[in-house]
Specification:
about 15% strand, globular, three-stranded antiparallel beta sheet, five-stranded mixed beta sheet, metal-binding, alpha+beta, oxidoreductase, Cytochrome-c3 Hydrogenase, chain B, 14 helices
Length: about 450
């Protein structure tokens, strides 16, 4: 059997490859998105004090550490029975907005847009952030500025721009000073202007999106709060592939809806619904689920988005404009929160007295999709069991099937051109996978150990 590999997949976080198997007639027989990284956070968290989880889990990833930080803190809230104060919740939400602004601007402008603004068939040495800087230096500078604001938000609220430490059981350990609020607001307003201007770029990409590219039909899952897009709290809703709401949960009952499993070609877990239906998460899912974004500029953009794709869409490349609408909405929401002086209140936490529940589940929306942290503890608060379900695992099926769909269309006579290979990568890139977050394996691993004897060694 002939095999074609794309190794590595470029412009994603982490290491992955694509393996394409051909039959005797050089047609695509199968294709898989393959990940061979392995990390063990779910195991070495066992035995740790659960209140340390919000400080340990951000080390899973340098791209989305805030998401793990806050999901872990929400699980701790439940274990200690300490509901955060309103100010504490707002500060946590603002930190999450910083994560979205930083991550979405990075992906949309620097990882995804070169395929559309420079061209998916342009030479690889030009189809990247360097090529974008050469072609649109003003756009690249504005993207960097927006990303910087997201990092400054994280630094101000989380103590550090990467791997924040301030979220604790019952809230957050520090308050926002009036001076810092004013400084951040001064940065937030021009960032919102950048987001407004950039919608024309996103609109152009949206209006030229191939809706059959990387085709896969799935259900969708994501958080909504009273019908609105939400990054911090709300209920997790499930839509079937026929756009029918089939379930909703908010915490410890998630195993009644989700089933994790593994395949022998990847260390990356897969997740499906307990009725056997496959599903996806992230920007595409959230916009399918939410009735509105909840901010005026993004709601206007959402109307345009739905004029193009409809109220409900399966289009894989729609992830890109959906991600931009979330970026725009998060910029608007950040300005709104920072413009309110009450966010500087000092009532940032509810004291945690001791273990109240021996299990806690924290669920938030990370930039890539729904993130679940599930901890069980003993009576002293030490972790006895840990499970992390991250967005990239939940999107694994969609990426895998999308890769096979495009591979079947672009492999010609058993050959894969560089431009065709990039088309396959574009499917993966649309999901903005975070491999470091996702490589937490279950079941039997496809690991072979070979012992070799070198007879030349003295």
């Amino acid at each position: 059997m002939k095999e074609i590999t794309i190794n590595p997949v470029t412009r994603i976080e982490g290491h992955a490859k694509v393996r394409i198997n051909l039959d005797d007639n050089d047609n695509v027989e199968s294709a898989h998105f393959q990940v061979v990284e392995l990390r063990g956070f779910e195991k070495f968290l066992i035995g740790s004090a659960v209140e340390e989880a919000p400080r340990i889990t951000p080390r899973i990833c340098g791209i989305c550490p805030t998401s793990h930080h806050i999901a872990a803190a929400k699980a701790c809230d439940q274990i200690f029975g300490a509901e955060p104060t309103d100010t504490g919740k707002k500060l946590r939400e603002l930190m999450m907005l910083g994560q979205f602004i930083h991550s979405h601007s990075l992906h949309f402008f620097m990882l995804a847009s070169p395929d559309f603004l420079i061209g998916h068939d342009a030479p690889a040495e030009e189809r990247n952030i360097v090529g974008l800087v050469k072609k649109s230096p003003d756009l690249a500078k504005k993207a960097i500025s927006a990303r910087k604001f997201g990092q400054r938000l994280t630094e101000a609220l989380g103590g550090k721009p990467i791997h924040p430490t301030t979220c604790i059981p019952g809230g957050i350990s520090n308050s926002l000073t009036e001076q810092k609020r004013a400084e951040l607001l001064e940065m937030a307003r021009p960032t919102l202007d950048i987001a407004r201007e950039g919608w024309s770029v996103a609109r152009g990409i949206m209006n030229n999106t191939d809706t059959d590219f990387g085709a896969v039909e799935t259900a969708f899952m994501g958080i909504e709060k009273n019908g609105r897009f939400s990054v911090y709290d709300g209920d997790v809703s499930i839509l079937s592939k026929e756009n029918v709401k089939t379930g909703s949960f908010s915490g410890v009952e998630y195993p009644d809806y989700l089933n994790e499993y593994s395949e022998d070609w990847s260390y990356l877990k897969f997740t499906r619904l307990y009725n056997g239906e496959y599903y996806r998460v992230g920007p595409l899912a959230r916009l399918n689920i939410a009735e509105e974004m909840g901010t005026p500029e993004a709601d206007s953009g959402l109307d345009e988005y739905r004029e193009t794709f409809g109220r409900f869409t399966q289009a894989t490349l729609a992830y890109n404009p959906a991600r931009y609408l979330e970026f725009l909405s998060c910029c608007e929401r950040a300005v709104s929160l920072l413009a309110d002086p009450s966010i500087c209140g000092t009532d940032t936490r509810t004291p945690a007295e001791g273990v109240v529940n021996e299990r806690g589940v924290g669920i938030i929306e990370a930039p890539r999709g729904t993130l679940i942290h599930d901890y069980s503890v003993d009576e002293n608060g030490f972790i006895t069991k840990c499970n992390l379900i991250v967005a990239t695992c939940q999107n694994n099926y969609g990426m895998d099937r999308g890769v096979e769909d495009v591979a079947g269309k672009v492999v010609e006579n058993g050959n894969l051109s560089e431009s065709a290979a990039n088309k396959i990568e574009m499917v993966i890139r649309a999901y903005d996978p975070c491999i470091s977050c996702a490589t937490h394996a279950i079941g039997k691993m496809p690991l072979n150990i070979e012992f070799c004897r070198n007879r030349n060694i003295i």
